Amino acid sequence: MPLNLTQKIIAAHLYTPAVRLPLPGEEIQLRIDQTLTQDATGTMAYLEFEAMGAARVKTELSVAYIDHNTLQTGFENADDHRFIQSVAKKRGLIFSRPGNGICHQVHLERFGIPGKTLIGSDSHTPTGGGLGMLAMGAGGLDVAVAMGGGAYCIPMPKVTQIHLTGALQPWVSAKDVILEVLRRLSVKGGVGRVMEYTGPGVATLSVPERATITNMGAELGATTSIFPSDDITRAFLKAQEREKDWTAQAADAGATYDDTLEIDLSALVPLAALPHMPDNVKPVAEIAGLPVDQVCIGSCTNSSLQDMLKVAAILRGKKVHPRVSLTISPGSMQVFGMLAEGGALADIIAAGARVLECACGPCIGMGQSPSSGAVSLRTFNRNFEGRSGTADAGVYLVSPEVAVAAALTGVITDPRTLGDAPHITLPDAFRLGDNLLEFPATPEEADAVEVLYGPNIKPFPASSALPESLTGVAVLKAGDNITTDHIMPAGAKILPYRSNIPFLSQFCFRQLDEDFAAHCESARALGGTFIVGGTNYGQGSSREHAALVPLYLGVKAVVAKSFARIHKANLINAGILPLTFAQESDYDKIQQGDQLALTSVRAALTDDTALTLTNTRTGEAYPVVTDYTPRQTAILLAGGLLPYTNLDARV
Ligand code: MIC
Ligand code: SF4
């Protein structure tokens, strides 16, 4: 039977070879070739890995990046970096030092290999799909298991074909392709699916352009996105002195898909995602003229050399509008170095841009929060309310071309009104710039390397086996599309404490309920907390803190209309029950503050029998769905993945 590319890579990586391809929704166990972590999720992942007691990583390649927490306003981040650096040295990982760049950009340049599997403790790991990898975001604990040689378990995805024809017109870019997909499919349109790009339009896109598209496929809720690996991929790898890593990867002739979306690249126009959701997409021409206060160019979506050279070419000989603060963060040291060497950096500086470090920076609220009520145009991938650090700022997600046009005119501008589009040429060979990579100790030297824990690393929240019955208070009733930024915000004030769950807990759900943590404390006497949510609960980042912090606060179950994939897995790993309403209308019958109960929950899970949620106030019983795999059931019964594997991750 002819297979599509997604099915081919999955079939080649099943832990136990199967006689037939698994059906969509069936749990699959994947062999993982490569892993990556970043520092904001990495500290937990390496604490968990250490708890597993493995002497060395068992993957073909594992890389620990430092790119999120690089402000170092106190000792906390520096200590966490040192911890990760020492684990990497001892356990056989490559360590990418702060300043080397954003994990996804560096991984694409230096490590990604077509046809391989990659999981990363960051939701934008699908960037690797631009090279023809099956690259997925995961919780830190799942990455730790994969580093130890264990399988990564996910439901077998459906595969959506995105068939590209035509070619992008001047001033229209790869960002507009993914914004168009988001406009059509919404932030939950990709749940349970891999988006596979095919068609003659593929050959018109470079690897960094493909990576922009697969990167922001995360905003569709997709398991991942993937492009074939072809001659363009080969040329990219050759320029990185990695041609030996190239293989052709493509769907078999006659392969079938679960569904197809047609996109004519020639018909696309410059687009923008308006506040506060990545799928709130409109043509730039419709919002042109709106005054702009800030423009930020960078992030793992748009920080390649190609993007930066375009920006520099548009800025050349011009001045940034006096109302606008323009920041530019090159994605990697390689990009930064090449901008400097070729003179483009001088154009950027002369125009009046503020050049920032090669890191996530403003994308995760680490500096550059806009002023009150400001309009900020960003080339990033998420514009959730408050993520920039300013609750009432309006963040618009756009391409580098649209961003720089606004930086020059001071208002939202359709770049097609600016005359000829810039013409840039990419070098045949890249300046490699690996001087901020550190390689691990040999197995013989590793014994002498000490793992260095800092005082900011606090004990891991403990979970216990699932009791016979659960009772609790519906402390929070949330709406649709709740993001992990709502559950566990990031930003400069909080991010340094990613290894300190007790500290973080004060900020849980702050945006929806200032006193959420205190309310959970009061609910303890009544058994604990239940959270009620709408559709696509937990979309966005892969941060397992959005499960570990609720666990610490006594959350027992989340009952929602539907869940985002990575967050659901993180809840299960933490031992918190994710329950789905069998009838969505039951959501309306629960009020915040109601007392809820699940009786005989252990028995229901063990025997796979029906489970109902009782509302003590009304006496009503709502059927809930527990669509867990046998492995997930066993994890929940044990109280989480660590107790399930009989491990204690406390330091
Ligand atoms: C994000 O873009 O939200 C992050 C910060 O990169 C997260 C990871 C984290 O919370 O540390 C992600 O996307 O997974
Ligand atoms: Fe970093 Fe932003 Fe990319 Fe997340 S989305 S990895 S914060 S650049």
Short description:
The protein is built from 22 helices and 26 strands. It is an alpha/beta fold.
Question: What report would you give on this structure?
Answer:
The chain is an alpha/beta fold and 651 residues long. It has three domains: 5-267, Aconitase, domain 3, CATH 3.30.499; 271-413, Aconitase, domain 3 (2-Layer Sandwich), CATH 3.30.499.10; 470-650, Alpha-Beta Barrel (Aconitase, domain 4), CATH 3.20.19. The protein contains 22 helices and 26 strands. A seven-stranded mixed β-barrel has the order 20-21-22-23-26-25-24, surrounded by four helices. It has a six-stranded mixed sheet with strand order 6-5-2-3-4-19. Strand 21, helix 18 (545-552) and strand 22 form a beta-alpha-beta unit. Helix 2 packs across helix 3 and helix 2 (39-52) crosses helix 5 (140-147). The longest helix has 17 residues, at 75-91. The chain is globular, with a radius of gyration of 24 Å. The model has no long low-confidence stretch (mean pLDDT 96). The structure holds alpha-methylisocitric acid and iron/sulfur cluster. Iron/sulfur cluster binds next to loops.
Overall CATH architecture of the largest domain = 2-Layer Sandwich
Structural class: alpha/beta
Q: What general outline do the C-alpha atoms trace?
A: globular
Rg calculated over all Cα atoms: 24 Å
Described by its quaternary structure, the protein is single chain
Report the bound ligands by name, code or SMILES. alpha-methylisocitric acid, iron/sulfur cluster
Amount of beta strand: 15-25%
